[in-house]
Predict the structure of IGSF1 protein.
Amino acid sequence: GAPTISIFLKPPGVIPPGGSTTICCRCQCDNGNFVLYKKGHQFRTLELRGGRVEFSISNATEEDAGAYSCHYMDGGTVLARSDTVEVIVQEFRLPKPVLSVLPGHEVDARTQVIFHCTIAHSHAGCFLYLEGQVKAILLSKEGDNYFNLSHAHKGNEGRYSCQCFTKDASSFKWSPVSKTLDLVVR
């Protein structure tokens, strides 16, 4: 079958003007090139090294915002396509949230783990990010931004962070991304 490509932002989350992020593309592939597409147009080509390539965006502006995807090419043939990752560049207008985890950073397999994102703003919603994943988790909001992981397993290990937002009729307002927190499952 065709190889699968994963695409993600490192660090994940919305970035401020002047900020930076790296678009990472990974593949169980041999030789060939990765072509980065932005809004459906070919943007940049990089040679595959060790199954991954990284495209850096620094000193970000509105021009850098948009939907990016990776295509794995051999010669002129597209062998595989990634999902799309959205780069959002916006001023931060909310305070920085704090991410905590209970019962702690190291847990035994099958333990219940609760991530909690705290922000000094009563109506903010928050996303939980796991580095290496393109999809963020929208935290449940009953006055409390938390995510309950009922049976932790090795696949839940990694570097987590959270970012909060408010939405009114015309726009989103974002917080910076919290400090990261590493979860280890024994």
In short: The chain has two domains: 5-87, 98-185. Residues 17 and 70 are 24 Å apart (CA to CA). The domain at 98-185 is CATH 2.60.40.10 (Immunoglobulin-like). The radius of gyration is 18 Å.
